[in-house]
Amino acid sequence: MESSLDLPPDEGDNGKTGHESGAEGSVRLEGVTKKFGSFAAVKDMDLEIANGEFFTMLGPSGCGKTTTLRMIAGFEQPTEGKVLIDDVDVAGQPAYKRPTNTVFQSYALFPHMNLEENVAFGLKRKKVGKSEIKKRVAYELERVGLSREAKRKPAQLSGGQQQRVALARALVNLPKVLLLDEPLGALDLKLRKGLQVQLKNIQRDVGITFVYVTHDQEEALTMSDRIAVMDEGRIEQCGGPEEVYERPATTFVAGFIGVSNLLPAVAASGSEIKIDGGPTVSTPEAADFSADERCFAVVRPEKLTVSAADEAPSDRPSVDGVVESSLYLGTSTQMVVRVADDVKMTVLIPNASEAERHQLPGGGSRVKLVWEPDHMHLTSESPEESASADTADVSPDNEKEGATA
Amino acid sequence: MTSLRQRLIPYWLLGPGLLWLLFFFVIPMYFMFELSLKTGSLETGYQLTWNWSNYADSISEYSTQFGRAFYYAGAATVFSLLIGYPLAYAIAIKGGRWKNLMLFAVIAPFFTTYLIRTIAWKTILDDSSIVVDALKFLHIVPEDGRVLATSGAVIAGLTYNFLPFMVLPLYASLERLDLRLVEASKDLYANSRATFFKVTLPLTAPGIVAGTLLCFIPAAGDYVNSTFLGGTKQAMIGNVIQSKYLVINDYPVAAALSFTLLVLIMLLLMAYIKFAGTESLMGEEDEVK
Questions:
Q1: Domains of chain B (ranges plus CATH)?
Q2: What angle, 0 to 180 degrees and rounded to 10, lies between the N-to-C axes of helices A115-125 and A130-143?
Q3: A156 interfaces chain B, CB cutoff of 8 Å
Q4: In whole angstroms, what is the distance from residue B281 CA to residue B284 CA?
Q5: Cβ within 8 Å, pair A121-B188
Q6: What is the ipTM of this complex?
Q7: Under the phi-then-psi rule, with left for phi > 0, alpha for psi from -120 to 50, and beta for the rest, what region is B20?
Q8: How far apart are CA B12 and CA A227, in angstroms?
Q9: B61 touches chain A (CB under 8 A)
Q10: Is A192 helix (H, G, I), strand (E, B) or coil?
Q11: Chain A 13-32, CB below 8 Å of chain B: which residues?
């Protein structure tokens, strides 16, 4: 990716660290395992992050995403395996020798220095010339819109401003890889939305590889080029936002990204599956499963339509159920329909008009859930099944992973 | 009505302390100042004669002891800092589950009185003690030399006695140190050395300032250590004041010396705080918003 930005020219740098380009930086993990005592936070992980990519590691608390990030940064050393940055194995190297910079969840701004000094910290350690430091720091503070606050101390800033300083302090060094550990986690929703867009734009501008850690699926879907969905120290699926949302590889991914709508089914011969207590549906994906193998059909809530139970069957697949609850969400209505004893489906119905809304079936009514065959996707059960718990609503403030061990 | 009561609360809280200081500090200080300007003797009584020469004479006569007091106290403070900082760092950051036990070990000497501990040191450093034999064997002390009644012995005693006053404030500030800042520093290309001098040390400066003050001020006025561990050549200004008051009964000169010591310490203190920066005394939490 081209750096389209008029970055201040590199002068006066004695080339001690020699990675001033900021335009390259691939990361590769090979068989990486990290153990804290007997607990394995990361298990035999392989991962490849391309140059200039916005890559997100997404998962619940304790899934190993922060530990993985800390191994790339050099705060933790892998118990086994290799960490390669631009094909150089950096495992064993301390953080200060690695061409990476981190934006911390807590920002970790130095309270005894003003913003300028904070941002200049890394360049000073690299012995960059004074005039160049001044230029680059001013440029970076300008970029995050904090030039006027340059002489202030971090404690005099709001959370959102501190977050931007943390970003500037990392970016000013033009690292090969920028690591972001839930950088927006401590901010309120509105601010977060704005900064998501800003971050994405900045990444596009500078072309630096971003490795982003979050437990917020929406954030991941909005910003990332690719997402690795993680659980219990392993990657469950790695792919583009659309891929992980539309075609979740496992029940865990289906449950973690979006609302889990899983219909247990069994693969029949050839290109058909038989949904438990429901119809037989023909789908090309059935070929991925052997005959009689258990699988799950995933249909996203917005892809389901509700019709009366006695409506004439169409050629589209459907299941019968009982409405359990109906919740008004403003732009849509969320309906939970019990299909079997332990199977519940969530349906999102866009709210067009009030009149239409009043015609929706109420609690206790029998309904039929209908979908297009194209909108159904098959997944296999996650190896260590834990997706049954509703993992989707991890609260944002309890994200402290095994790193303290 | 409640608002008046609420406004009075701070004064009620301040009251006991203020009264205490008034009766046992301000008033005695006034009488001592008056005394320092009197002439006379215990037998004939003292008259206020505004005898400022008490100051001029005593300062010129005992300048050596003043100098020695500040030299010994300064050296003891520096040694306490050099020993205390790594100690406090280890306890606060690497201590883990041993933290409380190690802190207890730092405070444990307080369970014995100051005097007894110093007399114990006299025994330890005595000419015939095993410690001195060992030092001679290692050629740290010459064969015919002695440890007791040297400047080294007095400074060692002061260092030992005031070390906990250095360690505790240092521990408190190191304990509060946000280790994520240390991590951020390493992330920004600072090796351990740069991280220590640019991040850890400045952030623990309030502890260093508090520790050095708690160590230096009492050490400068101390006379117990030089009484037991030093000889006449190690006399500090505290020894002079003690003997003027309690042996020679020359009260006006003793009072003048005490006042001079007080003023000198205060001047030194002000210079030090100016040098160290008030910011480090205030800590880093000067939040505006």
A1: 62-282 (1.10.3720.10)
A2: 130
A3: yes
A4: 9
A5: yes
A6: 0.78
A7: alpha
A8: 63
A9: no
A10: helix
A11: 17
